[in-house]
Amino acid sequence: MPQLLFDCEKMKNPNTGLFEFCKQLGFALLKNKAADEEMIYYVPKQYQGFFGDNATYKKKNSLHKFCIPPNIKPDIWHTTFQSSRYMPSTGRSKKVLTIHDLNCIHEKFPPQKIKRILHSVQDNINRADHVVTISQFVMDDVKTHLHLKDKPASVVLNAAHIEAYPDFDAPAYRPAQPFLFTIGGVNAKKNFHVLPPLLVGNDYELIIAGPVFDESYKQHIMVTAQKHGVADRVTITGAISYPEKYWYLRHCAGFLFPSIAEGFGLPVIEAMTLGKPCFLSNKTSLPEVGGPLSYYFQDFEPAHMQEVFNNGMQDYQKNNPSAAIKAHAALFSYDNTAKGYLNVYRSLY
Questions:
Q1: Maximum distance among all Cα pairs of the chain, rounded to whole angstroms
Q2: Do residues 139 and 10 both lie within one domain?
Q3: Residue 44: how many CB atoms within 10 A of its CB?
Q4: Could you read off the pLDDT of 246-296 as tens digits, one per residue?
Q5: 12 and 69 co-located in one domain
Q6: 105, 192, 307, 329: which one has the fewest Cβ atoms less than 10 Å from its Cβ?
Q7: What is the DSSP letter of 216?
Q8: Are strands 38-43 and 94-99 parallel, antiparallel or unpaired?
Q9: Could you tell me the sign of the dihedral formed by the alpha carbons of 73, 64, 155, 4, in that order?
């Protein structure tokens, strides 16, 4: 029986895109695998049994960064983060590496830090038997900045799944009037500070949800809101629950995502699943993910963003593209993603 090990080490960080990737793809792999394939989940100790009783579990140990013990030798070892140190260096296991992004380049990190990050990713590419990227944009980045050396490589598009809680109606913060919504880790690459000007000239509130990774950046957002006279209509909630996320996505008038560095952009597909108008940056992978049914900021000057937003809302209200938006989102299913990875695994054993 082929043993397929799926690395869930990054589930140690809840309320992140990597947690969702491991969680949703982990369940989809179990659902779509063949009867004669065994799924093994490499997890932090608190997630033993997380995927149910029809799976095998191996507990993550920090010492495994230096050496994977010889009693863990699956046919396939899938390392799910590009610079992870949890990957066998030798042995019979064939190694699959997922590269989510090279955001260090687009965030314009200092040259030495970029060099260090790219070196760690290149080292994992050198050890892998098959490299996967989560979007064509990321594959193009890899081919530009790293060396595949004729190694097999595939694009397996990422996916998104929004869990429905239709009876939930108790968010920790309930807006008093129609609102715009965004979600993500609160730090500079998400670019949330450009959003408050969109509240000028209307009565919308702005809800920004997600763990605050940079307290000074949170203050920068609020200073910008004060500058534009809308601070009383901007709320930064911090991390929220799954029911709250569903509630905000379901009830928002529009979804905003001005990020400057994304390998994919899971929240965009989550919002599109509910048929919402999406207003996105035109940077990195977002045009590939949002497609022709989203509205794009070509720059972040307030007047331009207000024009894109106002024209987009008018178009959405006039043409009612909600059904087409939902159909676009349905293309990005975890079943499709799991089948893509299983095909990669099967090419190696």
A1: 64
A2: yes
A3: 16
A4: 999 999 999 999 999 999 999 999 999 999 999 999 999 999 999 999 999
A5: yes
A6: 307
A7: H
A8: unpaired
A9: positive
265 conformational bin, left if phi > 0, alpha if psi -120 to 50, beta if neither: left
CATH code at position 102? 3.40.50.2000
Residue 194 lies in a domain: yes
d(CA 59, CA 42): 6
How far is the C-alpha of 342 from the C-alpha of 349, rounded, in Å? 11
Distance CA 84, CA 69 (A): 17
User: What is the reported pTM?
Assistant: 0.91
Give the pair of three-digit tokens for residue 263. Answer: 């390998």
Q: Which domain holds residue 280?
A: 179-330
**Other C-beta atoms lying within 10 Å of the C-beta of residue 166:** 9
Helices vs strands, H then E, count in the chain? 11, 13
**In the structure encoding, which two tokens stand for residue 349, read together?**
């054993």
Distant-in-sequence, close-in-space partners of 225: CB < 8 Å, separation ≥ 6: 196, 199, 206, 231, 233, 234
35-84 per-position pLDDT tens digit: 999 999 999 999 999 999 999 999 999 999 999 988 899 999 999 999 99
What is the rounded CA–CA span in Å between residue 338 and residue 28? 6
3-state secondary structure of 223: helix
